[in-house]
Each structure stands twice: as structure tokens, then as C-alpha cells.
Amino acid sequence: MKGLSLMEVLIAMGIAIVVGGLLLIIIVNSAGLFYKQSSKVEQGRNINDALTQIRQNIKQSSSIDPTSTPEQLVLKISSIDSSGDIIADTFDNFVFSKDQRNLRFKTFPNALSSRKAQDQIFSTSVDSLNFQYLDLANPPNEVAPVSAVKVRITLTLKQKSGADYETNTATTEASLRND
Amino acid sequence: MINKESGQILILVFVALGVVLFTVLFVIAGSQVYYQNSQYSYNAESALTIAEAGADKALASLNATAGSFNPNPDDEVTLGEGTFSIKITPKSATTKIIEATGFIPNKANPKAKRVVKVEASKGIGFSFNYGIQVGEGGLDIAKDSTINGSVYSNGNITMAQNTKITGDAWVAGGTAPVADQQSDCTLGGICQDYIFGKTVSGQNRQDVAQSFKSAQTKVINKVSLRLKKTGSPSNPTVRILSNSGSIPNKSPVLTSGVLSADTVTTQYGFAEVGLSPAYTLNANTTYWIMIHANSLDNSNYWYWQNDQSKLYGDGEPKWSSNWQAASPVWTAINPGDLDFKTYMGGVATSITGASGVTIQGDAHANTLNTLTISKGAYYQTSSSITADSYYPGSADPPVQTFPISQANIDDWKTQATTLPNQTYTGDISTCQTTLAAGKYVGSITIPASCTTTVGSPIWVTQDLHLLQGATIKLDPNFGAASGTFMVDNFISFDKDDSILGTGTAGSYLLLISNFNSKDDPQARVAIDVAKEGNNGILYSNLGSIHIAKENHLTSVTGWKLSIDKEMQINYDQGLAGTFFSSGPSGSYSLIKGTYQVK
């Protein structure tokens, strides 16, 4: 039986190491790209959905509660009856806040309201959430929450993506239509 | 011998290719989902914007057709990338529900759909943002008295021994009582209209400015502009700008304020705008008052009264289509000076206490004297104060204009006068179960324990006296709307008197005295609440209000306020968006608080 010469074994091992190394690099890079892009897509969707929800609720709110802070927005939204009609001078509280790394949305309906209490999480990778309370001036000035007619929201999501962190920031503004 | 192990590297390559392929496909699929999600968000936002445009269109059409606009809900109107349809349902004789639906791209195959529902009514809305608001006359609180609530005053607050304010106390930077500069065509000039906020003869008049020269080097606190309006233009911003080559210098904006469109009516009147932050003008230097209409709209626009004879002489008016353009073009309005008044500040205002005086919230004023403040003290000068925290060097709070202007009151008077067969001449002193809206030439006395149901607006040319236990109540047919009861001279309360809305939440009856205590040589009181147990909303632009004993009021707004005992303010959140119904000739306005997205 004819065996392999030492030279043949060395050449074969060399080729195997080079090819294996290249394949490993491809797989690692591919996995990195996969995590990075998946993370970007998920963050983008989270930001879209969260900011759309926040904007829509700001537009409907009658006022901003004085307990609001740069990290917590408390909106007073008119309560509705079972027909979906507004109940005068009765308000439900909608709260958007950063709870550790979660963007949490909670509702506290008035006893007369037909809305159900909710506790939802829009994102689990919040790095920072900032609410700025603005007046009507151009450019707008920052004012106390109770005096605000417009809110600027800046949301930053940060997620581990492979060895690195993926960060995504979006800013939007909405005016109170019922103020 | 044949090599049975051939092709093993190929398997590894296939594995690697499989991983790469999976990754690529997954990323592409994720991107596709992200694209669709973004597209949906964009479409939903566009549909909402189009629905809002539909609601605006419905409101403008209601006003253009005297309320008869009633479109077919199946009709579609194309706007931009989508369409909208409008449904109008009557809610009451004066209120309609507007439901506007926006579709992207159309109703037949919508990718996104949003419904905006809002109510419109004949009348006008006002915001009473403070339980107690006092003008330049200031607030005097007599010994051992208490105010349960917060106060905003444009004049000094003086608190005698052992008095207390349980909320915040604000005193604005002091304003000189007379205008520093003014142009007023009614003082012998030639008055004419100058329209802006719409396209006139091909001119896109979105920005209008009037220059002036300050007589003093002082802070400017507020401006008044003689305006009227057509339709319902939105609140414009008024800016003070420096002069650069005989045109307004767009940057920096020296100071600014927002004009409440509600205080402007279809008849000319001076509308006040408080300015913030404080800015010091230099004497004999040219500055510009510039007003920017938020849009060019043929249905909702402004008039600024122009003095064709140029009695003022120290300025000139100009217009522009875009004051913020890289090189803004300003065109002279010849001949004329637009009517305005500028009021300077720099008058040190204060909250002055005595022993045992407490403010349980924050205290804001230029000068704080002899006070115990439970929270923050915000001031420039202080003496003998104790507080939880201290903020020396704080800017003076801005002047807050009153929510209802003289033009609003004049408008209601006109409505009262023009109602058919509703002018009554002679004093009334017997118990009337009802008083219809209209003008009453003379005085009215509501006898003890008498309940009178009233329409709105009511204008009494002399006095109103309420004897013990008297009640004035707004007609229940007004529903959630509010009403006004105006008296040219004095209003007096006795004991346990009530001024009530319809009983529906959000409805109030506003009692207004037009008496001018400010210029009265005897400084007589416009509204006198002599005894205890009274309630209601009291308002006087230029009159002083005196509260003698323990009373529970909803809101008090007056040029000057003096309190002898205890006044409790039960401020109602609904006052921040009060809607005052007008007569059949009124135009439709959106009712704040009724906007819903479905």
C-alpha cells in the first residue's frame, strides 16, 4: 500500500488550513452581518412603531400632566364612552416612560371611561428617551410641561450586535391638537 | 487506487455557501419587512394629514356657506398622494360633528386609512389658564386672609400680616402704564384696511412689519396691534427685530410672543401680545414689529389697520412673502403707518409680605420682600425671605395678557344689540324667571332667593345687583357651551349668590364688568363681593374686584384685586378650553378637546 509522503501531508494540511480559514472568515463575517442587519431592522421597526404611537397620542391629548419629566411623558386624553364619544372634562392618563431598557406605555383610564387599562412594551433596547416640552415660538422655547403645546421626542435604541453595539436615534415632534 | 475521500472540501464549501445564502436571504427579507413597515408608517401619517386637511376644508366650507355645507360622505376629493371624504352630522342647533377620512392612495384600494373626528360650533374658544389673574393694578391681600390657589399678576402683590397663598405666586416684570410709541389712525388720521395672511393682487402677504423708534433705553414688555380677522386664522407669532438697511433683520429675533387669535374679532380692536424673553431696546434706534401669518388662506386671514395720513411719522410699514428667505424681499406699504402701541418695562415689581406671610408654592417676581416661601424663590432682589431653594438672578416673568379682549366684549355687545326684538329699556328689580339674550338699557337687580335663567349674550348698560341667595343660570339649551353676562358699570354680590353654567360639564356663565376703575378719579370698585358664600367666574379688563369675606369662586380675572378675608379658588380644568357660544350669525370654530383620531 502506497502511503503519503511527508511533503504531500504538509501541502494537504496547508491547503486545508487556508481553505478552512477562509471559510471560517466567511461564516463569521456572514453571522456578524446577519446580527447587525437584523438588529438594524428590528430597531428601525421599533422606532417607527413607537414614535407613531407617541405622536398620535400627543395629537389627541388635551394637556400634558405636570408630573411629566424629560424621561416620562404623561398625557391627559379625553375619556370616551362606549360609543367612542368624548366625555367632557374627564381624562385618561397615558404614560410613556423609560423603564430600565424598556419603552413602556401604560394607560390609566378614568372610572367613567370605556378604555381598558394597558401596559405595553414598545421596545426592550432603549438607551435613552428624551421629551422636550415646547411653546409655539419659532424657533420654539422649552417650557414647563403644563405650558407646552408641542413635544419633541428623541429616542435612541442600543442593542448588542455581535461584538459591537448597534445604536439608532430618531427625533420627531407633535403638537397638541386639543390644547 | 481511486481516492474515496475526494470532494470533501466541496461539502465544506456548500456549508459555507449555505450559511452565506441564509444570511443574505434573511437580511433581504428583514429589509423588505422594514421597508413595508416604514411605508405603512409613512402612508398612515399621510392619511392622517389628509384627513386633517379634510376637516379644515369642512370648517372653511361651513363658514363659506353659513353652515349649509353638507357633502355626500361617499364623495372623494383628491389631495396630494391620497383622497379624503367628509361626513357632517348635526349635534345640536349650533354644533356639528365633522368626520374626515383620509385614504392612501384612494378609497377603493386603501393602503392606509385614518379618520379625524372633531366638533365645530358657532362661537369662539378662550383659555382661562389661571384661577386668579390680575392686571397692572396688582393684588392686595388684607390681614389674616388666605387665597387657596395660584396667582398670576402683572402688578405688585402686597400681603399683610398672617396672609397666605397656598399655590404659586407670579408677578410679571412691570409694564409702564402708557405706551412708549403708538400709531393710531382713530386719533385724527385716515384709517384703511391692510390685508395679510392671503394673496392680494398677486402679492403673497405672509409677513407684515412696522418700524418704530423707541423713546427710551428700556426693556420692551408688550405690544398692541389694531387688528381684525376674517374666518379663523391660527395664532400668529409677533416678533421684535432690529433694523438692517431699512428692512427687518431676520436674525436674531430679539423677543417674541404669540398673539391669541381668539382675542381678535371681525371688528378692529387692539390685541395685546406679551413678549419674552426680556430685551432692552436702545433709545432713538429703529426696530420692527413683525407679524407672521401661519399661512396664505383666502378664507382665514387678517387685517391690520393702516393710518394713511402717517400721523406717527417715526416708522414705515413693509410686507414680505418670506421673512426667513436667504435674502428676504420687503416691499414698502405706501403711504401709511400700521396701528400699534409699544409698552416698555423696567418697572421693578414685587411681592411684599409682612410677619407670618406664607407662599406655599413657588414665588416669582423681580423683588421678594419679607416672605416665607415653601418651595423655590425666583428673584433679582430680595430681603428677609426664607425659602426651600433660592434662584437669584431669575429673569422677570413675562406679562400675561388677559384671555378676553375688549374687541371680544364689543363683539358680544354687537350680537346682543342686533338680536331681533331684544332691547329692553328700564330698570328691572322684580324676580324674572328668564332673561333672554339682548341689550338691557338700565340696571338689573335679582331679588333675594330668586333664580333667573338667562340667554347669552346679555348686555346691561348700567348695574347688576344680586341680593342674598340670588342665582343666575345659563339656559340649559346651551349644552356644553358657555355664555356671557356683561355689565357696563358696577356689579354687587350679597351673600350665597351663584353664577352658574348650564349644568353640563364645560359650561360656564362669565360675569363681566366693563367699568374702568383704572381711570376712574374715585377708583371705584367694578365688582364688589361684599359678603360670604358666593360663587362664579368674575372678569373685568379694566375694573377692580373686591372680595370681602369667605367665598368659593371658580376664576377671578381683573385689572386689580383686593381680598379682605378668605378666597378659595376652585379652578376647573375645563376653563382652559372654554367655548363661548355666539348667536346665529356667528362663524364656526373647532371646539378644543373634541379632536379624535380613529
Would you mind describing this structure in some detail?
The complex is a heterodimer of chains A (179) and B (598). Chain A is elongated, with a radius of gyration of 26 Å. By secondary structure, chain A is of the alpha+beta class. Chain A is built from 1 helix and 8 strands, in the order H-E-E-E-E-E-E-E-E. Chain A has one helix at residues 6-60; strands at residues 61-64, 72-80, 86-99, 102-108, 119-123, 126-134, 150-161, 164-175. Chain A has a 5-stranded antiparallel β-sheet, with helices on one face. Chain B has 598 residues and is mainly beta. Helices cover 12% and strands 44% of the residues of chain B. Chain B contains 2 helices and 51 strands. Chain B starts with 7 loop residues before the first helix and ends with a strand. Classes of the chains: A alpha+beta (179), B mainly beta (598). The interface between A and B is large, with 43 and 44 residues.
Can you describe this structure in just a few lines?
The complex is a heterodimer of chains A (179) and B (598). Chain A is 31% helix and 40% strand.
Secondary structure blueprint with pairings:
The complex is a heterodimer of chains A (179) and B (598).
Chain A: H1 6-60, E1 61-64, E2 72-80, E3 86-99, E4 102-108, E5 119-123, E6 126-134, E7 150-161, E8 164-175
Antiparallel strand pairs in A: 1-2, 2-3, 3-4, 4-5, 6-7, 7-8
Chain B: H1 8-64, E1 77-79, E2 82-90, E3 95-104, E4 112-126, E5 132-141, E6 146-148, E7 151-153, E8 157-159, E9 164-165, E10 169-171, E11 181-183, E12 191-196, E13 198-200, E14 203-205, E15 207-213, E16 218-230, E17 237-244, E18 247-248, E19 255-258, E20 269-281, E21 286-292, E22 301-307, E23 317-320, E24 331-332, E25 337-338, E26 340-344, E27 350-352, E28 358-359, E29 363-364, E30 367-379, E31 381-392, H2 406-418, E32 423-425, E33 434-435, E34 438-441, E35 444-446, E36 451-454, E37 458-460, E38 464-466, E39 471-474, E40 483-487, E41 491-493, E42 498-500, E43 509-513, E44 527-529, E45 537-547, E46 551-553, E47 555-563, E48 566-569, E49 578-581, E50 588-590, E51 596-597
Parallel strand pairs in B: 5-7, 5-8, 5-47, 6-9, 6-48, 7-10, 8-27, 9-28, 10-29, 27-30, 28-30, 29-30, 30-31, 32-34, 33-36, 34-37, 35-38, 36-39, 37-40, 38-41, 39-42, 40-43, 41-44, 43-45, 44-45, 45-47, 46-48
Antiparallel strand pairs in B: 1-2, 2-3, 3-4, 4-49, 4-50, 4-51, 11-26, 12-22, 13-14, 15-21, 15-23, 16-20, 16-22, 16-26, 17-18, 17-19, 17-21, 22-25, 23-24
